Amino acid sequence: MKIRKKAYEAFLDIVGGEDSRTTKALYRLFLIAVTAVLLVLCVNLFSIGKSSFGEWGDFFGGVLNPILTFLTFMGLLITIVIQQAELKESRKEFKRSADALDDQSKSLKKQNFESTFFQMLSLHNDIVNSVDLVEKESGSITKGRDCFRVFYTRLARLYRETKNKGKGKYPPESIAQVSYTLFWKDHQAELGHYFRYLYNLIKFVDESEFSEGPYIKLIRAQLSDQELFLLFYNSISAQGQKFRSYIEKYELFDNMPIIRILDESHLKLYPERAYGECP
Hints:
Blueprint: H1 2-15, H2 21-47, H3 53-130, E1 132-134, E2 141-143, H4 146-166, H5 172-206, H6 215-222, H7 225-234, H8 243-249
Antiparallel strand pairs: 1-2
Helix pairs in contact: 2-3, 3-5, 4-5, 4-7
């Protein structure tokens, strides 16, 4: 065994190859060729004296050349077959590498998206916290998300006043639109930036590759009941029409306490999809 191992190592040194399937197959052919040469040589040595050196040479060459040619051809075939197998393995490895790079690219793209998304979500909360209202009579100041309770109270009061002035002549939907238009004139300065940024935040997610993820739900979870009510009435007005497609697509009014809506008939202003599973 040691002699065979040393012989194989010597063969590797001569051909300058590596220990592989191709090298082993060629080494076996080399051993067969050497054995064939030695066998023919021994036969011819025993025949010396019975024939002339010319006949001996012709016999030696005539027998050995076809054997070596055949072994050379077999070696070529073995090399081609093994190279095809190695090429197939290389293709599989290349595909695995390509898939790994693709997964890495998708992971990096998702990380970049999430980084931008959470920065935008944080800025949205900063916008909410920057809102403040000052009561003209008492001088008291309301800040942040508490302002939306005041906004909705004022909108509800305007709705009741407009409804009383109409004396039943106009449908609730028209009264809601008129009331919100009046409300918007008084509070556009405080709410304009809020609604524009919220719209673009949802648009950013919608136009990304990750719109099916939990990101819209995270946005919806940030909105208080009063914010949802204001979004409800803002989106039936002229300035909020663009928002309607996102409201319906992502069911933004899911879990909104509809019992506190200004009028139950207003729920018909949106398709049932907007309210999720609980219209």
